[in-house]
Design a protein that fits this description.
Length: 436
Amino acid sequence: MRHRMKLEKAREKIANADRQMAKLFEERMEAVKAVADYKKEHGLPVEDKAQETKKISEIGSLIGDPELRPYYASFLQSTMEISKRLQQERLRRQAPGKEQENAVLRMELGPDSYDIVLERGCLHRAGELLDLNRKVMIVTGELVPRKYAETVAGQCTEPFLHIIPSGEESKSFAVLEDILVTMLNAGFTRSDCVCAVGGGVVGDLAGFAAACYMRGIDFYNVPTTVLSQVDSSIGGKTAVNLRGVKNMAGAFWQPKKVLIDPDTLSTLPPRHITNGLAEALKAGLIADEKLFSLFETEDAATDTEKVIEAALRVKKKVVEADERENGLRKILNFGHTIGHGIESVTGMLHGESVALGMIPMCSDEVRARLIPVLEKLGLPLSVRADPDTVFAAVMHDKKMSAGKITVVKVPVPGSYKMESVLPEDLKDLIKMVVHV
């Protein structure tokens, strides 16, 4: 009985402490709002990592039991993260008309969750938004404007810039080894990180390097093309090619944060803009009828923030439901079955190839609406190549089950269905867009 009374008293103490913490938390958040107003008025950054570290150390020292200090530090760190998110949200709400230009999407993946910051100029706030107070391996491509990687490097305490050759050929073990050896020679540890600044090839390769080095270190993705901003920058797929087969060796390795700065698109040629928009169009066809309608009725190339955010929301929702591509995530391969074959045979850009790959996978009704959209964007409707060669490339790239290949089809905009087709039927579908 005595022990039971002690238990009840202990529980009541915990309940009282929780009630007090709830009240203090509310008071703290009210103060956070006042801080956000002050920072907005004076143009100050939301984050100050040096101040955070100092505060955690100082307040943690007030805990009498040394064993509890690291736990309290973790608790306080979580509270500060919530405070920052509240400040950022409040600042966005105070900026009328900026909803599309300043968005923070949260990829909810349990312990691997992360923010996707979509904001003009956020490249220049990388030091505020990312933890760059350590060794940072910045991987970029030779055709990516050097100023983007240098902007990030200028905000790091110890940056290392690694430039890879342009093109899909860089997704190789040789280039991967170069990055890893550079990190090894520079004394990178588990507490250091990798940051990709560039397109999909850079992101895939840098992410895989981060996943491999010392069994995994932090990775940040800063995509600078439409294609990588709407698609490959999120979701955690990292890889290199193997014996000519795309993405055959890789790992799921989620970034710690993604920075998407639409200002970086200003240096892209028009063809690369539409190349990336093809992936956004894919997202609309399989899961967002409003996004597809936007492509039909508006100029997607001049309203990139709206298109990028809508496409990201589609992929975010799919990845959250199926992180490791065991089921639902396969719908993101719409247009890719035939598209990958076309890309490998013709050397066309990825988005252009996917655009062609989508045409045979739509119902007649959807195809009749899709073709005018592709024409408006300047994307191809067919390509001159040997259909048998493309078919062979598709069969090399895709696995069969019970003699059939699973493809994604779109019966009506904003919906999808998975269908198993025979190889000879797939060959007929290829001939709809590939002609000698």
